[in-house]
Amino acid sequence: MTEPSATPAPRDPDLVNAEIALKRAAQRTRERARRAGIPLAYWKDGKLRTESPGDGPDEASTRDVDPKE
User: Which pLDDT tens digit goes with each residue over 9-67?
Assistant: First the structure.
């Protein structure tokens, strides 16, 4: 048997860059939906959630949705 190495394998730079790009795209999508007044639905922590734009930039309301409804 081989012993596990003490140092983790380096992460693939393409995967690191992809993660950064996905987070940036998600933020831009939220901003565009808020400006257009469009509700946004997404999956987080095993739950379907919706985010409705509020009157101001930081006034979005978020709620969990039962997918069986």
Answer: 777 888 888 989 999 999 999 899 989 989 888 888 888 988 887 654 455 566 677 76
**Torsion over CA: 35, 25, 23, 21 (sign):** negative
State both tokens at 39: 């509700």
pLDDT value of position 13: 81
**DSSP three-state, residue 52:** strand
Distance, CA of 21 to CA of 25 (rounded, Å): 6
**Separation of alpha carbons 33 and 31, rounded Å:** 6
Scan for tokens 């693939």, then name that residue: 12
Backbone phi, then psi, for 40, in 5-degree steps? -120, 135
Please state, in angstroms and as integers, the Cα–Cα distance from residue 31 to each residue in 25, 47, 51, following that order.
10, 21, 11
